[in-house]
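Hi R.,

Here's the chain you asked about this morning:
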Amino acid sequence: MPDATLFLELVALFAVALAFGGAAGFSFVLAPTLLKRLPRAAAGEALRALFPVYYLAIAGTALAGMAVLSALAPRRNLDVALLAAVALVNIVQRRLLLPRMEDARARVPAQPMQDPGFRRLHAISVTLNLAAIALLLATLLRLGGP
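And the predicted structure, written out as tokens:
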């Protein structure tokens, strides 16, 4: 049934492309633009409102792609594992890192980057986000290749 396999791979490719595009667009276009164009406090407030939705959307699309690719096991097990890692990273960011960052931000609300605890959490968050984007790109290239 090659038509069903092709269909599943196209659905998975769409989910991964959506996750990658959303993550890359948010991280490299939307967030920097907000920080550049809006007053710092307004940009920070907007990003704090968007981050929980962002992490949930990326985790959800990664899980959707993972679920579809699971039907193609064992041929796509590596891709399933990569998407599971992306989903996990985004869930950890949303459930564990964001609340801790908010607590650290409350200590120095006007200039949170002055707080060493906030700076450390921010660095971890940026690193995890870039890792998730790299995993999505790797998966996208694997799905789009021969």
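The mean pLDDT is 94.

Let me know if you need anything else.
M.
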